[in-house]
Amino acid sequence: MEVMQVLGNRRSIRYYLPHRPVEREKVQKMLEAARRASCVGNVTVARAIVIWKDQVSDEVMKAITPPLGYQQMNTAPCFILWYHDKLSYEGNKWIDDLKGLATQRRIGENLEQTVDLIEKSLRPAFGAAWEQMAVAPLAFMDVGQVVAQATFAAWDEGLGTCLMSSPRIEQIGPLLNLPETAIPVCLMSVGYPAESWEAGGQTSRPPLEEIFCEMEYGKPFKSDPAVVEELKRDGLIQTPAPLPWREAELKYIAHALNMEFQLAMPGAATPSEDGS
Predict the structure, then answer these.
(1) Which domains are seen in the chain, by residue range?
(2) What are the angstrom distances between the C-alpha of 131 and each of 64, 85, 179?
(3) Per-residue pLDDT tens for 95-116?
């Protein structure tokens, strides 16, 4: 399937087949795709813990459950907790990672000169500022790229996923033996969809010109109608939600899975809003 079609078909799946387990090898493929995502200086900040619902304690399930996760938490057989490890930016490690890029001939034209420049110019700066850089927006961007690649690998394997809010470190840290340098970013549900792949249509987004600018803020990036039509043909832009049959599908799923119509989980853990 072409890339644009894959991007257009992706949906956040909230209803899964609870009786159908997710194969371990498919999760491994998701993690392998994630491991190969682009990251600043090859520091690899993103980490993950795979949680199998049929093996986890009630205490852990309660700790990772977000307020708005009723359907996912009740039907998904697998969850992945994605987190950022601040220690990945530690000065000496970061320097070694950059040298690794040089050795692999990914940066610099001359290996010896590049390594010398890293030592003389970057080591002092990174040694003094790595703790601040470890929690800068650029670091968390890398986690986003990792999760995105895992998302599309899951889709390629016939799985559905949904990203939910991040549990608080003090609630799950001791239960999952997380290091003190961990910052939970998001919880991902994984499973075989119980709903159609369309999931009622493509979720609407703000207009292109409303969220993207050109040259400076306040100057919208103008959408070309011809490009829009091309993307419709390629499958990136699809029929917006809700499709006419969505209401009936939701009722059918709720009946088939014997689920109530609700969004919030009673007694769910409070999500982290500051990453701490």
Answers:
(1) 12-197 (3.40.109.10)
(2) 27, 11, 16
(3) 999 999 999 999 999 999 999 9
